[in-house]
Predict the 3D structure of the following.
Amino acid sequence: MHPNLEVVMRPPEVFVRGLSPAEAQRLKRASTGAKHRSKRIRAMVLLASATEMSAPEIARLYMTDESHVRKVIHEFNERGFPSLDPDYRGGRPSKTTPAERDAVVALARTRPDHQGVALTRWSIPKLSAHLEAAGTAVLSETALRALLDEAGLSFQRTRSWKWSPDPDFREKAERVLSLYREPPTDGPVVCFDEMGPIQLIPHQGSGWAPAGRPERLRATYKRPHGVRYFFGALDVHADRLFGRLRERKAALDVLGFLQTVRMRYPARRRIYLVMDNLSTHWTKDIRAWAAESNVELVPTPTYASYLNRIECHFAATSEFVVKNADYPDWPALQKALADYIGLRNGARRNARIDLIERRTRVA
């Protein structure tokens, strides 16, 4: 072996460990609703890895570094969900011992009415007073809140949970992932879904600005422009994104968009169309059109739409186009989406598909 071969060899690829449906749903919520942008991006990275996208592909998608992507995946595989949180450092040493902190956390996770206190939940002041009265620890409200944050506890609403009732979950998931792994010889794999509703209002986001002087967006309570939905399709192995804004996402609108997707490929090429189980995706008309148009409809398992790779691109589209923007009208937003898609597709442009896009473009 050449002595420098190890230096030039590509590092082995890294993927997130297998996710349960509950874990995937938790990541999906974090990718859109987490307070910190860094946590949202990390959740997006993990969801993309769950669809078996490689680290370089994810890095290009979210415009970050491959080593950061691999670090995020490694840390999640080792530490789980705590690895998503920002790692703030500093502060003076703790005045409590590890044993005292464990006792505080254990008490905070116990319902007050199980401790002889006639409440269904702790507030910070009441928990602090109870800890002092019980002789467990003497903590200010600020120190107690910081201790609970460090332990991964937060004050939050009770939630329901869903587990996929799909009896064919494993088979459907493997079918989708197998199409991602190996491109079929007779046609492309295309992922389809809708993003929205999108409102024509100022959307907060993130950006560089002088310290203490954040960029300002106008405030408005008027929303006279209605909503739109972004219909998106991703050619998985060509790595090409395509999308349009629509006023509705009814079955007729879905069928019309799928017909434009079909026009992008020769009729002899079979399209493997990955979609979730929304009722408007599986009407009789759409099934009949698929049978007549050399299209195979590939469903994701129930409550597992995260396996649809287009959702990773919706997260990126929202982050880089919708957020931190205030568009004056829908054509301006449509142009911004088209410009982003052109930037994202970059060198993957194809003259024939560009021609078809111009023919099928809808204002």
